[in-house]
Automatic annotation (TrEMBL):
InterPro entries: SAM-dependent_MTases_sf, Thiopur_S-MeTfrase_Se/Te_detox, Thiopurine_S-MeTrfase, TPMT. It comes from the Bacteria. Its EC number is 2.1.1.67. The keyword Cell membrane does not apply. SUPFAM superfamilies: S-adenosyl-L-methionine-dependent methyltransferases. HAMAP family: Thiopur_methtran. It comes from Oceanisphaera sediminis. This is Thiopurine S-methyltransferase. Pfam families: TPMT. It catalyses: S-adenosyl-L-methionine + a thiopurine = S-adenosyl-L-homocysteine + a thiopurine S-methylether. It is found in: Cytoplasm. S-adenosyl-L-methionine binds at W10, L45, E66, R122.
Amino acid sequence: MEAEFWHQRWQSSRIGFHRQQVNPQLSRFWPQLPLLQQTEVLVPLCGKSRDMHWLVEQGHTVAGFELSPLAVQDFFTEAGLAPELEQSGHYRCWHAGRIWLYEGDFFQADSLARRFDAAYDRAALIALPEPMRVAYADLLARLLNPGATLLLITVDYAPIQQQSPPFAVSEADVRRLFEPHFTVERLGRIEEGPSNPGVASGERQFFDELCFVLHRK
Ligand SMILES: C[S@@+](CC[C@H](N)C(=O)[O-])C[C@H]1O[C@@H](n2cnc3c(N)ncnc32)[C@H](O)[C@@H]1O
C-alpha cells in the first residue's frame, strides 16, 4: 500500500489490527525459540503493538520500524514513557528504555547497515500487497544474520479478496516467499471460526491465524 493509505488509517483511528492483548501465539511459541534473552528483536511495521513490551519483559531489546508518527507517539504515550529523539540515517529514531522505534519507511532499513539475530512479524507481511511481499522477504533475508530466527504470524482466509489488508498469506505463500533464504516450519494455527464476523455471517468459509518459525540459512 502507499504510505498515504497508512497515514490516513492512523489519522482517522481506523486501526482495527491493533490488539490490547499480547498475541497468544507469540507468548506460546517465543519461549521455545533458541534465543538468548538479551537478543535484539527486529519488529518491522510495528504499529503501536503491545507485543513489543512483552518482548522487553522477556529480556530483549526491540528495534521497531513504523511509518506513522502517530503510531510511534501513541506507543510511548500509552506506556507512560518519554522517549528521546535522534536522527539515524533516513529515520527519526525514538528511544526509551530497551525500545528503539525507527520512524520511517522500513524498505530503507538497508541504509542503516544493521543486522539482527531475531525478528517478529505479526500483521506486517499481511499488510503488504503481493509485489511488496517479495521485496519484504528479500529485505528480511538481508537484515538477518545466518542462523537468525523469525517468528512470523499471518492470516489465511477464504474466499480471498485482495483489495486491502489484511491480505491472505497461506503456508504455501510463506514457503514460496521465504524458502530461498530460510527454513520454514509451521508451529500453530488458530481457527477463528464464528468468532470472526466474516465467518459468522457466512461471507467467509474460514479465517485462520498461522504461526511459523523461520531460520535464516
Ligand atoms: C496491519 S498494521 C500492523 C501493526 C503491528 N505489527 C501490529 O501487530 O499491531 C501495519 C503497520 O505497518 C505500518 N507500515 C506500513 N507500511 C510501512 C512501511 N513501508 N514502513 C514502516 N511501516 C509501515 C502501518 O503504518 C501500520 O502501522
